[in-house]
Amino acid sequence: MRKIGILGGSFNPIHYGHLILAENVRKEAGLDRVIIMPAYASPFKLNKKTVSPEHRFRMVSLAVEGNEGLVASDFESSSGRVSYTIDTMRMLEKKFGKECELFFITGADSILEIERWREPAELLGRYSFLVGGRPGYRDAELAEFAEYLRREYRSDVRIIDIPKADISSTEIRRRNMAGRSIRYLTPDSVVDYIRRNGLYTK
């Protein structure tokens, strides 16, 4: 059975923290590939300014070039509607069929908020979750919450030990807007794309 991981988010823009999470979870969990899927619009960021879904998908595509284990998808970004994880996972389950096991990949900050997501009981009970650590969150706190999810929702939640890169999309946007360097925070191809297209300048 093929094992496919799904890593969703705004990716505004994608950075090395996202890529470290995707690659390390892929290797540690024995996934065949990880699909990185920028949202058309996140339900928790509807009032926040983001660059177009097309730009964000293109940056993800550039970031994963050369790594056959990571794939960019415009499944959500081209949908024209708010992206809910439960809807996406249901559709992907139908698309890939029973010969494929799906895993949703997320960071510690997101998993701690998962009960605020749409239909969390079905989401947690039906799909497996692979969680990577994030700077600022204690290992014991994350482990305790994962155990709660297993007990409350009978969820398959696994914590993956990954290198912690303290990088954020917010930081990249702020630095670029201020005319500061963003190199080595995101791949050079993404840096070049941001500059060529005048993104994150105001």
Give a quick summary of the entry.
With 202 residues, this protein is an alpha/beta fold. It has helices at residues 16-29, 53-63, 85-96, 108-111, 120-126, 139-153, 169-177, 188-196, and strands spanning 2-9, 33-38, 70-72, 100-107, 128-132, 157-160. The longest helix has 15 residues, at 139-153.
Protein model, in words:
With 202 residues, the protein is an alpha/beta fold. It is built from eight helices and six strands. It has a six-stranded parallel beta sheet with strand order 3-2-1-4-5-6. Helix 2 links the parallel strand 2 and strand 3. The protein is globular, with a radius of gyration of 16 Å.
Using brief descriptors, characterize the structure shown:
202 residues; alpha/beta; six-stranded parallel sheet; 17% strand; globular
Helix and strand pattern: EHEHEHEHHEHEHH
Overall average pLDDT: 93
Fraction of residues in helix: 40-55%
- Biggest pleated-sheet summary: 6 strands, parallel
Overall morphology: globular
Report how far the terminal alpha carbons are from each other: 47 Å
SS content category: alpha/beta
Residue share in β-strands: 15-25%
What's the tally of helices? 8
